[in-house]
Design a protein that fits this description.
Layout: E1 3-4, E2 7-8, H1 11-19, H2 23-32, H3 34-45, H4 49-69, H5 79-137, H6 141-150, H7 155-162, H8 167-186
Antiparallel strand pairs: 1-2
Length: 191
């Protein structure tokens, strides 16, 4: 209980003095229940000391603003009970917010996973279509395109391996093969 030189002040007197701008009473009111509140929060809600301090600051700030705004002019319970109640509400409010945030994050993860799965299926489908088209394309086109795009072989290497006249001829043949492959894929001529 805060004292005013000779006699203790009631909680309603404290509220009035805070409203009147008495900084000393405000500072004393802040300190009066701080340690007890922190112990209580740590024990009751199993939070860290830093979190308990934060909840006390939020509770006292709310209490202080309610007084200054005229929302709180007098109390029937004790200031301690009132402050602890605000702190408890702030704790539960934060817990609900954390749960909503976790739910939102989980929804986002599921959505991202679904998008990734869809993209992988599309990519796999494209790959299977290209593979089927390559197989239908026949030789030597299949061999040329496999050597260029899967084995990363040079035109000179392919020219030598497949017995073409020169690298320009091989490049021209690759161009014709790619056009045939594109046409097959564009026209769905895989059946």
């Amino acid at each position: 209980m805060i004292t005013n030189s000779t006699k203790p002040m009631s909680d309603n007197d404290i509220i009035q003095r805070i409203r009147d701008g008495d900084q000393l009473v405000t500072a004393r009111a802040y300190q009066q229940y701080r340690k007890e509140f922190i112990r209580w929060m740590r024990k009751k809600y199993h939070c860290s000391e830093d979190d308990a301090r934060e909840y006390y600051q939020l509770a006292f700030f709310t209490f202080y603003n309610q007084i200054l705004s005229g929302k709180l002019t007098h109390i029937t319970a004790s200031a301690k009970t009132y402050l602890f109640g605000i702190g408890k509400n702030k704790f539960y409010q934060q817990q609900r917010s954390d749960i909503r945030f976790d739910y939102t994050m989980n929804e986002e993860k599921v959505k991202n996973h679904e998008e990734e799965t869809h993209q992988k299926k599309e990519q796999e489908s494209r790959f299977l279509r290209v593979e089927a088209a390559l197989n239908k394309l026949g030789e030597p086109c299949r061999k040329i395109l496999m050597m260029v795009y899967y084995e990363n072989r040079s035109m000179e290497y392919i020219t030598q391996k497949l017995g073409y006249k020169n690298a320009a001829t091989t490049k021209n043949q690759k161009y014709k093969c790619m056009n045939r492959l594109r046409n097959m894929l564009d026209n769905n001529a895989l059946e």
